[in-house]
Write a structure and sequence with these properties.
By secondary structure, this protein is of the alpha/beta class. It has eleven helices and 14 strands. It has helices at 6-12, 15-28, 101-120, 135-145, 160-172, 183-189, 230-235, 243-249, 251-258, 271-275, 297-312; strands spanning 2-4, 36-40, 48-57, 61-69, 81-89, 95-100, 127-131, 152-156, 177-179, 192-195, 214-217, 237-240, 267-270, 289-292. Strands 9-8-7-10-11-14-12-13 form an eight-stranded parallel β-sheet, with helices on both faces. Helix 2 packs across helix 3 (101-120) and helix 2 crosses helix 11 (297-312). Belongs to the ornithine cyclodeaminase/mu-crystallin family.
Length: 319
Amino acid sequence: MLVLSEAQTVEALAWEPLIDAIGDLFAQGCTMPIRHHHEVEVPGERDATLLLMPAWKAGAYIGVKLVSVFPDNHMRGLPAIHGSYLLSSGRTGELLAVIDGGALTARRTAAASALAARYLARPDASEHLVVGTGRLSLNLIEAHAAVRPIRSVKIWGRNAEKAEETAAAARALGYAAEAVRDVEAAAQAADIISCATLSSEPLIKGAWLKPGSHLDLVGAFKKDMRESDDDAVRRASLYVDTYGGAFGEAGDLLQPIDSGVIKKSDIRAELAELVTGQKAGRQSAEEITLFKSVGAALEDLAGAILAYETVTKGLPVSA
């Protein structure tokens, strides 16, 4: 049985192969039951969340991810997300690999956003604003840079010191990155805005979005969470990773649907429809697009298969 550490998982999931693998599996399809979603009490802190996400390709692979989200872990200097992925044979049930769930989750989440950006962001998008300073922030920068000519990166967070640390880490990776204090001004200039927070209140306002911009919302994953306001969803062309996930958990869309700002029918497409060409993405250079993801077990399965086959079948390994 293969056991991949965080570093080994990262090394096995190079961005372009990972983005392609997720796109291919969305096109092919797989069995993806509704994920288990449980609230876990944490005395004296905000509740944690336990997620169990199964998926399988008949006769090939079976996978399940076990993830915990502890939103107050930042007080301990720990990541909010921990987890493991169990990959088994779809023919015999034999356990094939245990893969670091935190690294897999961060990379597949960013890769799914980059996959969406292939269809929704302008081809010349070069200014990237990242809202949030957690593990996802650097992954989102790297993933979008794999599909768009990103030249400038701005990073905003509630904690200015952490924003500076994240910007320094991005510069160490070769990006022209800087921390910003004025999120409104940064959003008004950005071609792509990625939000990766656990916010319950809107952080990005629709009035700030310039024509042609793309808003990528990946952080909020429950009905009472959101990162954008009503004006943002009203102004933008709306896309999601999966209809099931969005209509079940995406507060950024469910709250304005409930208040009558938008309708379910305003969601133009999910990723599977974009990658298969069933529905179109961006229609004009001036259009504002919005992609909302809450995560899909298909994405984890695609990443786990890629990591396993990269390591065991001697495929090139590159971070």
